[in-house]
Specification:
Helix 1 crosses helix 2, helix 10 crosses helix 11 and helix 12 crosses helix 15. The protein is globular and about 65 Å long. The chain has 2 domains: 193 residues, Rossmann fold (3-Layer(aba) Sandwich), CATH 3.40.50.300; 156 residues, Arc Repressor Mutant, subunit A (Orthogonal Bundle). The strands form 4 sheets. The protein has a 5-stranded parallel β-sheet, with helices on both faces. The chain has a two-stranded antiparallel sheet with strand order 3-4. By secondary structure, it is α/β, with parallel strands linked by helices. Helix content is 50%, strand content 14%. Helix 6 links the parallel strand 5 and strand 6. Bound molecules: adenosine-5'-triphosphate and magnesium ion. The site of adenosine-5'-triphosphate has 21 residues, from helix 2 and helix 10.
Amino acid sequence: MKSVNPFPINQYLGPYYFCDREEETSRLISNLVNGNSTTLIAHRRIGKTGLIHHVFHKLPKGWQGIYIDIQETENLFDFLNLLATGLARAIPQKTRTGTRFWGFLASLRPVFSFDGLSGQPQVSFDIKSTDPQKDLESILKVLDGLGEKFVIAIDEFQQIIQYPETNTDTWLRSKMQQLHNVFFIFSGSQQHLMTELFSSPDRPFYRSTLFMKLDKLPGDVYAKFIRKKFQENKKSIDLPVIKEMLEWTNHHTFYVQQLCNRVFAQTTDVATPELWRQVAGSILAEQEIVFFTIRNLLTKHQWRLLKAIAADHKVYQPTAGNFISRNELGSSAAVLRSLNVLITNELVMHDFDKDGNSFYAVYDVYLQRWVEMNRL
Ligand SMILES: Nc1ncnc2c1ncn2[C@@H]1O[C@H](COP(=O)(O)OP(=O)(O)OP(=O)(O)O)[C@@H](O)[C@H]1O
Ligand SMILES: [Mg+2]
């Protein structure tokens, strides 16, 4: 797929638009080829989904990737429907394996519909007549015997914790062990849930997969990539300007891409420092309504804490006396209570720096910049 703007922000369009991740890509492929499923964890909007598609693009011959995002699923029926749709889209009906697989799908009596826009088949199952667990087992078994290798990437995997069916993870884990030609990438952004699923000794997935934590792209590599994309399109941007843009977006992939996308669109020949600042200002102005809404949903104390974290960028000890008094936050118990709410609502993230020290930061880069600017 080709885009006029070299900084796509909605979907993976191919290696030309994708910056680096070479080490992560080869590690993931090597894990899979060696029979290891992998758990991929990162904060939101860092590039998990992009990486999965990039890996799919680079899989060796005879391997096929299937992607499903289970964020919106509520139970195993939804999961079954989504997986069947993913498979139906990935496996062309007219190939030898396709004929076998589609023959099997038909035996589950799916209702097919076609997406009006893309013409892609949409499979939906008659949920009254099926036992989703049994059907999923059959699907995986058939897939395993098709004579090819498959990677099923399940994005936002932590969602299975919400399913009313208990022990979905126990069941999936036991099925996984019986498969020889189907491997998994489990990806998710809610780190505490993902870690609980995969690294807690009393959960079935404990030590069953290899772990990969996706970090931000290295600044110098990203800067060169950005400059090159401008040059390839007969526009120019200086490294110091790119450096300012990377800093303003905290090197957070989605925000970098969006800012670059807009700056690129507005540049005739040369992207100037004035131009990117103006673009950044309009992005914040567009988001203002969202920020006001967030502010209204929070208590005064929670908002004050959010402001304080935004101002410091990284806060290592939110209950330290000096941080509390400087920001008039009352007691450390009150700070912990508010912090909890901010984390649960994904307004503040908890992370570790290179030395393993834990810190807190505002999750949404735009919100951070806006709060910092306005100090409302
Ligand atoms: N290496 C990369 N080079 C260029 N663009 C990238 C890269 N990785 C991701 N992107 C782009 O950045 C944006 C965010 O990435 P992506 O959607 O993959 O993040 P995510 O971690 O899956 O986010 P979420 O948690 O919200 O699902 C997307 O528009 C994607 O195309
Ligand atoms: Mg994603």
